[in-house]
Amino acid sequence: MVLIKEYQVLLPCSVEEYQVGQLFSVAEASKNNTGGGEGIEVLRNEPYEKEGEKGQYTHKIYHIHSKVPSFIQMFAPEGALVFHEKAWNAYPYCRTSQYTATFTPTAEPQSSVPPFSLP
């Protein structure tokens, strides 16, 4: 038998304020890690509405050449350290697909972040 414990942390803000703070934090982290041709390149960032679901669609390219060890940089083929991410963020749900330009799979792997409740 498995014992499951749940902990709830009360936040001094509303769900809407938390969402704004989360978006700001992600934007700041992206800005701080970008420069000199490295980091995150945002191709599209626009609102979307599909089947009653409203959210933000983003298409980003992650350039991580300088973020990996040098021995990996030597053996990685051109474009292997560039990742594309397409995300449909309908807070609190987020659907993301990621792929590389050189190793594009026929079916994109997808991950979905489960929602969590805030008081």
Automatic annotation (TrEMBL):
It is found in: Endoplasmic reticulum membrane; Golgi apparatus membrane. One of its GO terms (molecular function) is phosphatidylinositol transfer activity. InterPro entries: PI_transfer, PI_transfer_N, START-like_dom_sf. The keyword Cell inner membrane does not apply. Pfam families: IP_trans (PF02121). GO terms for cellular component: endoplasmic reticulum membrane; Golgi membrane. Residues 2-104 form the Phosphatidylinositol transfer protein N-terminal domain. Keywords: Acetylation, Endoplasmic reticulum, Golgi apparatus, Lipid transport, Lipid-binding, Membrane, Transport. It catalyses: an N-(acyl)-sphingosylphosphocholine(in) = an N-(acyl)-sphingosylphosphocholine(out); a 1,2-diacyl-sn-glycero-3-phospho-(1D-myo-inositol)(in) = a 1,2-diacyl-sn-glycero-3-phospho-(1D-myo-inositol)(out); a 1,2-diacyl-sn-glycero-3-phosphocholine(in) = a 1,2-diacyl-sn-glycero-3-phosphocholine(out). PANTHER family: PHOSPHATIDYLINOSITOL TRANSFER PROTEIN, PHOSPHATIDYLINOSITOL TRANSFER PROTEIN BETA ISOFORM. Belongs to the PtdIns transfer protein family. PI transfer class I subfamily. This is Phosphatidylinositol transfer protein beta isoform. It comes from Albula glossodonta (roundjaw bonefish).
